[in-house]
Amino acid sequence: MSTRRGAGLSALQSRSSYASHGAALRSSNLSSYQTQLSVFQSLLHTFALQHGDKIKENPAFRAEFARMCNAIGVDPLAGSNVTGKGKKSGKGSWWSQIMGGDVGDFYFGLAVKVVEVCRDSRGENGGLIGVEECRERIRKGREIGGGIEVTDDDISRAVKSLGPLGSGFSIIAVGKKQMIRSIPKELNTDQATVLGVIQALRFVTVSMLEDNLKWEYARAETVIKDLLADSLLWVDAKAPEKEYWSPASMYADDE
Predict the structure, then answer these.
(1) What is the average per-residue pLDDT within 57-67?
(2) Pick from 37, 139, 44, 40: which is nearest to 97 by CA?
(3) 250: Cβ–Cβ under 8 A, 6 or more apart, which residues?
(4) DSSP single-letter state for residue 93
């Protein structure tokens, strides 16, 4: 009996020792990873300052740099306490240091233009515009950031930078397209499905929804009416059966 009790106590002490050793290893590994990440973030920041001109002028390089930042949990638009050459240490953002100017002027200025485009086109599209269309409208307008070429990735990041303001702007996927929604109302599943079908077929009719999606007439008609009420669809009443078109898809056809 005493032997068995001794063995049991010994095994318990051994398991406790293993658990303690495992916790120490995990703590050591975590500390090592955090140190490596901190060094990598610092090197990435130095790289950004050294290659600021290329990041500013080359949109593909800028997009890859931003993706590198995201991969290690660095927000280029957030403040940084790392001092760069000729820069003050403090709460300035990386982009403001790289691009020059105050408070991330590039994405701030771009976000302002996105808001203007969405506001001016809301009567046409009900507050849902393609990222590509928004970019083209901005390109045709006055220069942004001293002639910096603007990409779809830049537009998406500018929209996301508006999130903390509670602006209601967001990027959503409709079919295969990235769209900017500038109204707080959410699209339901049926509405998103109809807009996706229009991307593929250019327009829909109630009978097309009944035949292809196997929807009841009431369901198809209700979705169409809701989208019309929100100005997300236009109607061609002169067709043999009313055809419903999306302004965003019509823009894509013109390209």
Answers:
(1) 76
(2) 44
(3) 234
(4) B
Encode 214-252: b = buried (16+ Cβ within 10 Å), e = exposed: ebeeeebeebbebbeebbbbbeeeeeeeebbbbbbbbbe
Does 121 have pLDDT greater than 80? yes
By the 10 Å C-beta count (0-12 exposed, 13-18 middle, 19+ buried), 126 is classed as buried
In the chain, the N- to C-terminal Cα span, in Å, equals 88
The angle formed by the CA atoms of residues 148, 178 and 226, to the nearest 5 degrees, is: 130
Name the nearest CA neighbour of 97 among 109, 108, 83: 83
For residue 239, the 8-state DSSP code is S
Q: Are 107 and 157 in contact (CB under 8 A)?
A: yes
Q: What span, in angstroms and rounded, lies between the C-alpha atoms of 67 and 57?
A: 17
What lies within 8 Å, CB to CB, of 22 at 6+ separation is none
| Residue, of 29 and 140, whose pLDDT is higher | 140
Both tokens of 104, joined, read 């991330």
State the pairing for strand pair 243-245/234-236. Answer: antiparallel
Helix 206-213 and helix 189-201, axial crossing angle in degrees, nearest 10 = 100
Distances (CA, A) of 70 to 20, 125, 181, 219: 34, 32, 23, 42
